[in-house]
Amino acid sequence: MKNTMKQLKVAINSTAELNKNNFEIVVVGTSLGGLQALTVMLADLPQSFPLPVVIVQHRHKSSQDRLTDVLQQQSSLQITEAQDKEEIVPGRVYLAPADYHLLIESPSDEELSLYENDFTEWGSVAVESIHNSKSLIPNRGTPKFALSTEAPVCYARPSIDVLFESAADAFGEKVIGIILTGANSDGSEGLAKIKAEGGLTFVEEPASALCGTMPASAIANVEVDWILPLSKIAPCLVNLLTIKN
Amino acid sequence: MPESHELETIEIQLLLEGMFRYYGFDFRNYALASLKRRIWNTIRSERLTTVSALQEKVLHNPAYLDRLLLDISVNVTAMFRDPSFYISFRNKVVPLLRTYPFIRIWHAGCSTGEEVYSMAILLQEEGLYDRCRIYATDMNELVLKTAKMGIFPLKQMQEYTQLYHQAGGKKAFSEYYTAAYENAIFRSSLKENIVFAHHNLATDNSFNEFNVILCRNVMIYFNSHLQERVHKLFYESLGMFGVLGLGHQESLIFTPYEKYYEAIESSDKLYRRVK
């Protein structure tokens, strides 16, 4: 525990350094025990939380919207199931719908085609570059969700890897990835990609997690930035994102 | 790794441009995040290492094209997928259809046909099938072949039976098929009024005026440009008060065509053209 607190302090002290990243999005993955863990984590995110939070919780394919309702009771942030092509808005919490993969489509990719050059439909609300500044592709508009029903990954649809990898692709170093309690290794690959792109990685401490398999797998696969007990994850996030300069 | 990102984007652009210009298959306006995943899955299964290597194979060897087409078009479907959709269709759309002497339905992106046969069963049970013609289209000839046969793996019937009853099915589901070895062969009367045809939503135009258009979990693979094109196509192909049915997580709200429709049942994504 002492070590963890020390880590947390280091985390907060290095906030100025980290803020250079200008994080844009938080992605969270969990399976077994996730409902409980998400309840704790979301309860500690204030209404003023500045980033969108996108969550993959493994669940049965016919499970209905009840998960949204249960989590909503604990959170001051608005929680919805992501819809296809929905714009991703800061301060909102999005859940991957049952039986679909959830991906993030970066606005520049929407302009991939060689022959189409009309950017007007993106309107005048140009968001600050979300790509690495070296990127030659101009960024216009807001990133959106995309859904897919292709084959399960790690037996899971929605898959954490799929969300995390597409987030790393779309947001580069501006992603914060979090793996919570869970019973398989989904998310490890995705978290590695987030780390490789320069994003920030959190994993719930396996020993105190409801099911340590998924966190342990992530830790074995990625040089994780912070390993924290569940109750410390949201406070650390909030500190990180609210202490400016 | 900004360089490799950039290079990957260029390589994918070139692959898609090549496929379009040489073979006429236009994936240039597909949603990139998931398309990229599927292209890389193909690259790995062909034991290649770059998008450019795949491009070389695909352009010089049509066998690679066929495999790539199957890999990058997602053909996941099920009979009575999302049972609540069929319940809403029975309760809210069937009464509208009863008022028509003849009903034209377009099932766009029908894949291997499971959802088309589901609709045929529903319409038979509601006594409307004889007045219907269902145009079931897909861009992929291979999946259309399967759809035309109406033969599906027997092992799936248990799950489909459950979904059929959740969807408001009125009979024993086994009345609709004959089991033969590993297969369930669906009754040919279900096929009588279905026309299976090749149609590519990315490049082809309208071919009739319809009372109902169903296009579920197809446009999620398109980017906003292509979605807009297809919504325009659907709008122009629907008669006044025609019904549009989308997938459970799809919405008209994010398109410019929202204003032309009213929701019949918004949670099941059934809309009616009102302008």
Could you describe the 3D structure shown?
The complex is a heterodimer of chains A (245) and B (275). Chain A has 245 residues and is an alpha/beta fold. Chain A has a domain at 27-59 and 66-80 and 90-98 and 159-242: Rossmann fold (3-Layer(aba) Sandwich). Helix content of chain A is 33%, strand content 17%. Chain A is built from 9 helices and 9 strands. Chain A has a 7-stranded parallel β-sheet, sandwiched between helices. In chain A, helix 3 runs parallel beside helix 9. The two termini of chain A are 28 Å apart. Residues 112-139 of chain A have low confidence and may be disordered. With 275 residues, chain B is α/β, with parallel strands linked by helices. Chain B folds into 2 domains: 2-72, no CATH class; 83-273, Rossmann fold, CATH 3.40.50.150. Chain B has 9 helices and 10 strands. A 7-stranded mixed β-sheet of chain B has the order 6-2-1-7-8-10-9. A 3-stranded antiparallel β-sheet of chain B has the order 3-5-4. In chain B, helix 1 packs parallel to helix 3 (51-60) and helix 2 (32-45) packs across helix 4. The mean pLDDT of chain B is 94. Chain A binds chain B through residues 81-87, 97, 100-101, 103-106, 109-110, 112-116, 121, 131-132, 134-137, 144, 146-151, 162, 165-166, 169-170, 172, 196-197, and chain B through 1-2, 5-6, 9, 12-13, 16-17, 28-29, 31-34, 36-38, 74, 76, 217, 219-221, 223-225, 227, 247-251, 253-255.
Query: How can the largest sheet of chain B be summarized?
Result: 7 strands, mixed
Order of helices and strands of chain A: HHEHEHEEEHEHEHEHEH
Oligomer: heterodimer
CATH architecture descriptor of the largest domain in chain B? 3-Layer(aba) Sandwich
Mean pLDDT reading of chain B: 94
Helix content of chain B: 40-55%
CATH architecture title of the domain at 27-59 and 66-80 and 90-98 and 159-242 in chain A: 3-Layer(aba) Sandwich
As a whole number of angstroms, the C-alpha radius of gyration of chain B is 20 Å
Identify the CATH homologous superfamily of the domain at 27-59 and 66-80 and 90-98 and 159-242 in chain A: Methylesterase CheB, C-terminal domain
Largest interface: A-B, 43 and 36 residues
> Largest beta sheet of chain A, briefly?
7 strands, parallel
Helical proportion of chain A, percent range:
25-40%
**Through-space gap between termini of chain A:** 28 Å
* CATH top level assignment of the largest domain in chain B: Alpha Beta
The average pLDDT score of chain A comes to 83
**Number of beta-strand segments of chain B:** 10
Structural class by sheet pairing and helices of chain A: alpha/beta
